């Protein structure tokens, strides 16, 4: 029993990375482009695995457009849940939501409802880009203007024209800090996942200073090498092997 509890925790330590997507952020003024790579109705579903063992499932969805604080926003929702077998040892039911400004593509509001084993946490972060501050559960911290949250960052990155060999510098406001990091586009690669075969761009994020990504290990993301740039594979190495989130189903608008 002890083995399965420890093993489950290792899987779902990375589960939060996958259910929250990858940490990126906006740079300078972020005006929306005419040809958006994503829209309401997009839904991506992933299986989270350690080797051949499926520990759970996660999905990312552009749920709707709605007005929030006088601004039109996209409501992005990602959900992660453990597989029935792992529910016995370490039940996971995570729900993360991001509200992205339609014009500027920065985060307006970020909500986390985390349920992992005996651990529970609910938090809300509200971003005031004009004043360059944010409030996480009422506690104020400074941010870079037009920064992102953990979830909105991946959607913002998809609007960029990514080039192999280039490194992009970003900031993200989360955990009451404004995190600087780099995103390196490593290579092009054709890969096969349960949802099909895709030509992809492989990207890797780095923190500029010690922090969360150093703790989480070697994380890479495979994005489709087309106008959509949606993720098809995420992989994080651990001491024994790696944990991956592979696309098993997609619904595109």
In short:
The protein has helices at residues 2-19, 84-87, 152-157, 212-216; strands at residues 43-50, 53-68, 71-82, 93-101, 107-116, 119-128, 133-136, 139-142, 167-174, 177-193, 196-207, 219-224, 231-237, 242-251. It has 253 residues and is mainly beta.
Radius of gyration: 17 Å
Number of strands: 14
Binned, the helix content reads 10-25%
**Main sheet?**
14 strands, antiparallel
Number of domain units? 1
Biggest sheet strand order reads 8-7-6-5-4-3-2-1-14-13-12-11-10-9
Which residues form runs of ≥5 with pLDDT under 50?
1-8, 10-30, 209-216
| Cα distance spanning the termini | 44 Å
Q: Please trace the helix and strand order, writing H or E for each element.
A: HEEEHEEEEEHEEEHEEE
Class of secondary structure makeup:
mainly beta
Report the β-strand fraction as a percent range: over 45%
Mean pLDDT: 83
* Shape assignment: globular
The number of helical segments is 4
């Amino acid at each position: 029993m002890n083995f399965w509890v420890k093993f489950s925790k290792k899987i779902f330590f990375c589960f939060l990375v996958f259910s929250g997507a990858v940490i990126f952020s906006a740079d300078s003024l972020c005006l929306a482009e005419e040809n958006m790579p994503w829209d309401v109705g997009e839904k991506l579903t992933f299986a989270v695995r350690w080797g051949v063992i499926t520990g759970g499932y996660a999905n990312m969805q552009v749920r709707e457009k709605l007005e929030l604080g006088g601004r039109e926003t996209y409501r992005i929702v990602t959900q992660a849940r453990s597989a029935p077998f792992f529910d016995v040892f370490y039940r996971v039911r995570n729900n993360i939501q991001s509200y992205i400004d339609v014009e500027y593509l920065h985060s307006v509001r970020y909500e986390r409802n985390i349920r992992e084993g005996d651990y529970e946490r609910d938090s809300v972060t509200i971003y005031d880009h004009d004043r360059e501050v944010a409030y996480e559960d009422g506690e104020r911290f400074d941010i870079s203007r037009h920064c992102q949250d953990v979830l909105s960052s991946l959607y913002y990155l998809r609007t960029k024209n990514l080039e192999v060999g280039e490194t992009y510098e970003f900031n993200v406001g989360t955990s009451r800090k404004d995190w600087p990091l780099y995103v390196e586009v490593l290579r092009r690669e054709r890969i096969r996942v349960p949802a099909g075969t895709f030509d992809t761009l492989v990207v890797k994020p780095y923190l500029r200073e010690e922090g969360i990504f150093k703790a989480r290990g070697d994380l890479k993301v495979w994005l489709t090498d087309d106008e959509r740039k949606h993720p098809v594979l995420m992989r994080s190495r651990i001491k024994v092997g790696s944990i991956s989130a592979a696309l098993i189903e997609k619904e595109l608008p």
